[in-house]
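TICKET: design request
STATUS: open
ATTACHED STRUCTURE:
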């Protein structure tokens, strides 16, 4: 599912879950637990990267369709909890997009303090193209990363690569694929040279408006979001999206 290794003072979390590291309930819960545990270790920084050809292709839509409304009720809060855990991680976090980072995978990548993308990798948030709404946490994390380009990212549903990913704020830098992991660890080590307590406080201050909005909007809007995700209408549009993009139903 994933593994956590040490590279000196940096903890490297590598997702290895099926062919494209699709997010399901168990992966969301496991990754959230892993990053929270790292907050209490002597690791000074963390790197998040995918194994194989994907960072994460986002939500496992096939499982969502197979298991229905009850699964949606459990999974969507777990997904928001996962994203919140990485966004609020108090130490430096570098996200290294080694391959496709789609929807939830894109938003997880946006949690990084430093966001690297491999040459040829594609990243974006096509939720509205799929036909489902954003919970509060994913949308606010995109807003934090992309700023004035948020509407372009959200409304277009486009998958960005290279300089375009940097332009819209999803990534900070494009790196040759063969250098990605080493660069991510180097950047994590560089951030780890900052004094830990001032870094923690500065990160919390920078992200507090986003965290506050997530908490406010989750209380008022996420129930409606879950109701849409678990509906028969959503299942129909998700099947149509999968038919169009993957050719399977």
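STATUS: resolved
RESOLUTION: sequence designed for all positions
ATTACHED SEQUENCE:
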């Amino acid at each position: 599912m994933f593994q956590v290794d040490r590279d000196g003072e940096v903890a490297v979390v590598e997702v290895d879950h099926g062919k494209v590291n699709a997010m399901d309930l168990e992966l969301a819960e496991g990754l959230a637990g892993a990053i929270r545990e790292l907050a209490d270790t002597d690791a000074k920084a963390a790197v998040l990267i995918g194994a194989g050809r994907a960072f994460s292709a986002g939500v496992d839509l096939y499982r969502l369709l197979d298991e229905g409304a009850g699964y949606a009720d459990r999974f969507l809060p777990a997904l928001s909890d996962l994203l919140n855990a990485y966004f609020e991680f108090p130490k430096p976090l570098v996200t290294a997009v080694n391959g496709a980072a789609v929807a939830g995978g894109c938003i997880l990548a946006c949690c990084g303090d430093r966001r690297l993308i491999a040459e040829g990798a594609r990243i974006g948030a096509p939720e509205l193209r799929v036909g489902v709404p954003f919970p509060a946490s994913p949308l606010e994390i995109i807003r934090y990363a992309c700023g004035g380009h948020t509407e372009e990212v959200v409304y277009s549903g486009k998958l960005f690569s290279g300089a375009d990913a940097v332009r819209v704020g999803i990534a900070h830098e494009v790196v040759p694929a063969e250098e990605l992991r080493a660069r991510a660890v180097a950047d994590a080590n560089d951030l780890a040279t900052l004094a830990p307590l001032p870094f923690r406080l500065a990160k919390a201050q920078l992200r507090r408006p986003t965290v506050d909005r997530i908490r406010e909007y989750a209380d008022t809007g996420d129930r409606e979001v879950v109701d849409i995700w678990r509906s028969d209408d959503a299942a129909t549009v998700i099947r149509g999206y999968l038919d169009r993009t993957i050719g399977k139903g």
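CLOSING REMARK: Residues 45 and 92 are 5 Å apart (CA to CA). Strands lie at 2-7, 10-15, 45-50, 54-56, 93-97, 100-102, 114-118, 123-124, 159-160, 173-175.
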